[in-house]
Amino acid sequence: MKWEAQSPPDLLLTADHAELDGLLADAFEALKSGNGEQAFASVDLFWARLAMHIRAEHLHLFPAIEALPFAAADKAKTDTMLNELRSDHNFFMRELVAAIKLLRDETGGTAALTATAEGLRQVKDRLALHNEIEETRVYPLVYLRLPPDEAAALHSKMEFEITNMPPRFADSTETGL
Ligand SMILES: [Fe+2]
Ligand SMILES: [Fe+2]
After folding, report:
1. What dihedral do alpha carbons 155, 156, 159, 163 form, nearest 10°?
2. What's the CATH number where 69 sits?
């Protein structure tokens, strides 16, 4: 997605949220189908894509926000909000690592598929609120306050992270990228 300096807030990460929602829906479908191999592949893809998105936020977006010149009171509020978002990220990764381990160890047994779906439901609920906070309070902030050239550079770095698929997905055509 091309950066348009005249149309903030940027939609790159918001569009990625929508793609991730689609991949999570695919994972639920695969878990429901009872096909262990397909369930593993779907959950693995969602995990990889969410990890890439989180990496873009941790490495580039959040530091850019932390470097903005806030008044002290706003700075404290922003730091608290970012720490909560980081804590959500840790929760998502912990749950997904556990889900992948379960699916791998149990090779798609019914109990593993059910337990994985339950774990993913918790991820889905927390992710919905998390993404709403980012889209309404975080993403607009950085693009409205950064000079256009810095915003464009930030956009490029984040775009690289969210399209840089791990090598194990080299042949995948399901990413929509
Ligand atoms: Fe996030
Ligand atoms: Fe996000």
Report:
1. 180
2. 1.20.120.520
